[in-house]
Write a structure and sequence with these properties.
With 284 residues, this protein is of the alpha+beta class. It has two domains: 116 residues, 2-Layer Sandwich (D-amino Acid Aminotransferase, Chain A, domain 1); 159 residues, D-amino Acid Aminotransferase, Chain A, domain 2, CATH 3.20.10. The protein is 30% helix and 27% strand. It is built from eight helices and 15 strands. Strands 7, 8, 9, 10, 11, 12, 13, 14 and 15 form a nine-stranded mixed β-sheet that branches. Strands 2-1-6-5-3-4 form a six-stranded antiparallel β-sheet. Strand 14 and strand 15 form a beta hairpin. The two termini are 22 Å apart. The relative contact order is 0.15. The protein binds pyridoxal-5'-phosphate. Belongs to the class-IV pyridoxal-phosphate-dependent aminotransferase family. One of its GO terms (biological process) is amino acid biosynthetic process. This is Probable branched-chain-amino-acid aminotransferase. Keywords: Amino-acid biosynthesis, Branched-chain amino acid biosynthesis, Pyridoxal phosphate.
């Protein structure tokens, strides 16, 4: 596999980053994950807009213009012959002698990108739905910034695995669901309304979430952007997650409680189909 590392396209075994890179030492870095369908990038401009916001909230240097980043994404997809999968981008505050204070503004950003080949459209998760457990949300309070501080979500996924589930929905101190470890959480009420937590500092502003809400409202679904408890989710007609890597994937059990009939719900399946069709049509 060819990766992009600080200005060069290299075989992955030859790519190196500095021991002093602040992404490595302080998790002083942000990232994006863009899905690829038929060799084209899905929701690219949305991901770049969120990257700009993450960079600016942390006063991180820009790793390049949107056009330059698009060119790197395309070059990597092409060099790796990627048809379906993901492009991961990570931008760091660069390398500087270890110090809590930020290095001078002129320090060049660190930038790495790599591709991952992965089936996204036809998956067992989409076919069967996923089981989740609920866990306390122990992340920092600025979850709207897409930083690489992923240790807690990683631990929560391990906890889910140990419990025989595939993922975890995190619950804030207020007893309300924030989001999944790497996805936004949604439920469908008995009267068919789509309920998902409103945007704030508590959750990542999902690019797939935004696209799915737009498509759902075009479909005539009523949308309630509000928080919900694990109990409300367990009693809901349907539950599902959204993310660049899962698109729309049904949740069929929460803490061992079956959701609806315990199989992927009709709304989630329709939204998945519509999202994929739209993604294929608008990918660049
Ligand atoms: N929430 C969290 C915590 C995430 O890590 C992600 C994606 O990585 C999402 C939500 C979904 O965001 P997107 O739809 O932009 O992939």
């Amino acid at each position: 596999r060819i990766v992009y590392c600080n200005g060069a396209y290299l075989p992955e075994a030859e790519a190196t980053i500095s021991v002093f890179d602040r992404g490595f030492l302080f998790a002083d870095a942000v990232y994006e994950v863009v899905s690829v369908l038929g060799g084209k990038l899905v929701d690219f401009s949305g991901h770049m807009a969120r990257l700009r916001r993450s960079l600016s909230e942390l006063d991180l240097p820009s790793p390049g213009s949107d056009d330059e980043l698009l060119a790197i994404h395309r070059e990597l997809v092409q060099r790796n012959g990627l048809d379906e999968g993901l492009v991961y981008l990570q931008s760091t505050r660069g390398a500087a002698d270890r110090d809590f204070l930020f290095p001078p503004k002129e320090t060049p950003a660190g930038l790495v990108l790599f591709t991952q080949a992965k089936a996204l459209r036809q998956t067992e998760a989409a076919e069967r739905g996923l089981s989740v457990i609920t866990v306390p949300d122990l992340r920092w309070a600025r979850r709207d910034i897409k930083t690489v501080q992923l240790l807690y979500p990683s631990m929560a996924k391990m906890q889910a695995k140990a419990a025989g589930a595939q993922d975890a929905w995190m619950v804030g101190e207020d007893g309300l669901v924030t989001e999944g470890t790497s996805n936004n959480a949604h439920i469908v009420t008995a009267d068919g309304a789509l309920v998902t937590r409103a945007l704030s500092h508590s959750i990542l502003h999902g690019i797939t979430r935004a696209s799915v809400l737009r498509l759902a409202s075009e479909m005539g679904l009523s949308i309630e952007e509000r928080s919900f408890t694990p109990d409300e989710a367990k009693a809901a007609s349907e539950a599902f997650i959204t993310s660049a890597s899962s698109f729309v994937t049904a949740i069929v059990s929460i803490d061992g409680v079956a959701i609806g009939k315990g199989t992927p719900g009709e709304t989630a399946k329709r939204l998945r189909d519509i999202y994929i069709a739209e993604a294929e049509r608008t990918a660049i």
